[in-house]
Automatic annotation (TrEMBL):
Gene3D superfamilies according to UniProt: 3.40.630.30
Protein name as catalogued: N-acetyltransferase domain-containing protein
InterPro entries attached to this UniProt entry: Acyl_CoA_acyltransferase
Top-level taxon in the UniProt lineage: Bacteria
Organism encoding this protein: Solirubrum puertoriconensis
Alphabetized SUPFAM superfamilies for the sequence: Acyl-CoA N-acyltransferases (Nat)
Length: 356
């Protein structure tokens, strides 16, 4: 085993940080979406409110970021990639755990890249039929086994559900009442196009913070950091027929959001080229809708808006798509109920933790 390196982050990521995933995923069917320029900017932003220590080796067999947030009893590990070597991971995680204990943390949680706003979780089990969708956690199957061998256990679980074509008619029959009632509720429906995204960008940012702010391990981000991932280029990939903002007709406040777009993975676009719905949708060999981010402002919950947003998406689903994946829903979350009772294929994920 190569000598373990410990490098406090001071503004630049070392070369081996990028070499590790290239090595790990060279023979894997899928690999995480990672943009080096965005990752460098993210580290620079987050270094303002976290101490960050990198662990790895010059042979590029492992990388691991220890993240030490202020005013928290939990330290995080993130940006973890590794070959299947238990001894090197045991050494790296032991060093990270000891450092966390010395700093006064009582728990270690991950993989979590600073916040649940960014990439986190591991995919459990084998590769599902869809392979990989945009920003889905993907990893070699040995990752969960390595973590559990080091004493980590799942602390939160999630799932994605693929609804097959033969089930879609049943979805419509089951939700027929919601479809009829859509036109009667006191909300404006604002389709999300690149232009409307720019028009409501700051309000969308505030709505995202309000909806997801209470989620476990979520940490608020600045508007500048929000725009690293969610901006006009992101809006260009959204399906304008199924992505929507609900606006309260009484006061003009945004009450709910639904971000949906096709699964563009089959196009195998170059890493530096972002998908564009208007340009790329017709090229897709199979039209699979991803229901990615759906949520309701806390002031508007318990009014059925989650189901109404699902119904809104279905109005246009039949004429444009063949399948739908409800993506990355937390176990026990209300959003799971929309597909309860249906036949579906499921992929599962977990966030892991360990007491120190």
């Amino acid at each position: 085993m190569a000598q373990l390196l410990r490098i406090p982050y001071h503004g630049q990521l070392p070369n081996w940080f990028w070499q590790v995933p290239a090595r790990v995923y060279q023979n894997q069917p899928s690999r995480p979406d990672e943009n080096p320029a965005v990752t460098e900017q993210l580290f620079a932003h987050e270094a303002e409110r976290n101490d960050i220590v990198l662990f790895g080796d010059a042979d590029a067999t492992l990388r691991l970021a220890g993240i030490f947030p202020e005013n928290s009893s939990e330290a995080y590990f993130g940006f973890w990639e590794t070959v299947n070597d238990a001894s090197s991971n045991e050494a790296a995680f032991a060093a990270l755990a000891e450092e966390a204990r010395q700093r006064g943390y009582s728990r270690l949680v991950g993989p979590l890249n600073f916040s649940t706003y960014h990439a986190y979780r591991l995919r459990l089990g084998g590769v599902p039929s869809w392979g990989q969708f945009d920003r889905e956690p993907v990893n070699p199957v040995y990752y969960p086994e390595l973590l559990m061998g080091l004493g980590f256990q799942p602390v939160s679980t999630f799932e994605s559900r693929l609804i097959r074509p033969e089930t879609v008619l049943a979805v419509f029959a089951d939700k027929d009442m919601l479809l009829r009632e859509l036109g009667k509720i006191p909300y404006d429906f604002i389709p999300l196009t690149p232009d409307t995204w720019e028009q409501y960008e700051h309000a969308i940012y505030e709505l995202v913070q309000a909806i997801f702010g209470a989620n476990p391990a979520y940490r608020s981000v600045s508007f500048e950091q929000f725009r690293l991932l969610y901006n006009r280029r992101y809006a260009e990939r959204l399906c304008p027929y199924t992505s929507v903002l609900f606006r309260d007709q009484a006061n003009g406040q945004l009450a709910a959001l639904s971000f949906c777009h096709p699964n563009f993975q089959a196009l195998q676009l170059p890493a530096n080229e972002q998908p564009v719905f208007e340009r790329d949708f017709a090229k897709l060999p199979r039209k699979v809708l991803l229901a990615k981010t759906v949520g309701v402002h806390p002031d508007y919950r318990q009014r059925g808006l989650m189901s109404y947003m699902g119904a809104y998406g279905m109005v246009h689903f039949r004429e444009r798509y063949e399948e739908v994946i409800f993506c990355l829903m937390r176990t026990g979350n209300y959003s799971l109920h929309f597909t309860d009772g249906l036949d579906y294929e499921v992929a599962q994920y977990a966030l892991f933790g360990k007491e120190l």
